């Protein structure tokens, strides 16, 4: 199998060929780039392996490309990198690895191309393409990765138990590639993941979450979560999610399986957004349902306050999973907390005040919140679905009208704390906060418009009621 033709798309490789000639070393394209070339998924990362020094090869290539080209050397790893336009070339010497049981960091020594291919995670990631004169473009595929690509299968090159035991992160990677590429995991490989799952504990949470986030960003993330669930990995890395699974029956009444519901919501929202954090909000929107579940003889299963309890679980989960604790986390928390509010707004005789409150609380995130709510419709009854969708259409229209009228998105009452202190000659005390809050409430309730004069007058009135006199 020869890929000379396909490689003409990357003229820079002729410089690599020339450099390999000059050094008299054997040089190959390797890994994800080869896989993606065959799958016709254009990729910007080009991994190149040489049976020799990766750094020396990179320097030679750079010299051929011209004086302006820089080589970034990573001495500790023995690798070097060249950036050309939007391409990133990574050069590494072929190596052989051996592992100790307590670490996923192998002892490394120089090796042959075959050694290097042996240490790779999956057959589809272990293919090489020659960049040497004698057989330029020729596929070097000792594990028949090509067949697995065609059969759409993830399989380890060596015995899967050893592969996963050596580096347990590969278990996450197997599921990640299966999800990204929509491939199956070959049965022996999957069984080895089930058997080795506990070894994931030697992998840092950051690396695990990196892979998990790639799964979440795939086209159909539910597939990855199902693989994680059935392999047993999900229970180790994300136990809260396992709790969602299952249906309890009392007196003939069941509730929906919140695990599969959540996955459906995640897939739904993924059709409307590539935003990782909105997808995370979908994953976590019902996370407190198990903790709040009760059976009521009259109404059946209830999950009172699960949105609030769930919101409070978000920081804990983010901290453990080493996800950011910044505004991304606060966004997810907010969406979890608010995810039922638009549904309340679909009820009849909803006041403008309730609408205004939601707009103020959601602020810039109102569109994302509505996306989440629409994704949350997973009823199998098309009539119900239609009704829910229409309800949300209506809510969205009302929100829009209100927003146009009141500009509530970045709502700040016109009266500030400083103005209150000045008007009444107060120090920063509880009273100041109370007056401020009262003015804010009056505006949101629509008692007064958000304009200086009426708000100021209202402030004086509240002050009078509290027995506080303005200074003349
Ligand atoms: P992508 O860049 O889309 O995530 P990739 O296959 O290029 O996919 P990288 O993480 O960039 O993945 O790794 C490049 C190559 O290095 C892989 O194709 C694989 O051959 C090898 N590799 C990476 N991580 C491991 C690992 N943990 N164990 C074995 N081989 C690995
Ligand atoms: Mg890569």
Brief overview:
The protein has helices spanning 4-7, 12-23, 32-38, 54-65, 113-118, 145-151, 160-166, 169-181, 187-196, 205-216, 221-231, 233-237, 239-243, 258-270, 276-284, 289-292, 306-320, 327-338, 341-344, 352-362, 366-375, 382-406, 417-424, 430-444, 452-465, and strands at residues 27-30, 45-50, 71-74, 79-84, 87-93, 95-98, 107-110, 128-130, 139-140, 153-154, 184-185, 294-296, 300-302.
Descriptive account of the structure:
- The protein is elongated and about 95 Å long.
- The chain folds into four domains: 4-149, Beta Polymerase, domain 2, CATH 3.30.460; 152-237, Hydrophobic Seed Protein (Orthogonal Bundle); 261-339 and 356-386, no CATH class; 417-465, no CATH class.
- The strands form four sheets. The protein has a seven-stranded mixed beta sheet. Strands 6-7 form a two-stranded antiparallel sheet. The chain has a two-stranded parallel sheet with strand order 10-11.
- The chain has helices at 4-7, 12-23, 32-38, 54-65, 113-118, 145-151, 160-166, 169-181, 187-196, 205-216, 221-231, 233-237, 239-243, 258-270, 276-284, 289-292, 306-320, 327-338, 341-344, 352-362, 366-375, 382-406, 417-424, 430-444, 452-465, and strands at 27-30, 45-50, 71-74, 79-84, 87-93, 95-98, 107-110, 128-130, 139-140, 153-154, 184-185, 294-296, 300-302.
- It contains 25 helices and 13 strands.
- The mean pLDDT is 93.
- It has 472 residues and is of the alpha+beta class.
- Strand 12 (294-296) and strand 13 (300-302) form a beta hairpin.
- Helices cover 53% and strands 11% of the residues.
- Helix 24 crosses helix 25 (452-465).
- It binds adenosine-5'-triphosphate and magnesium ion.
- It comes from Dyadobacter jejuensis.
- Keywords: ATP-binding, Magnesium, Metal-binding, Nucleotide-binding, Nucleotidyltransferase, RNA repair, RNA-binding, Transferase, tRNA processing.
- Residues 27-155 form the Poly A polymerase head domain.
- It holds the Pfam family PolyA_pol.
- Its cofactor is Mg(2+).
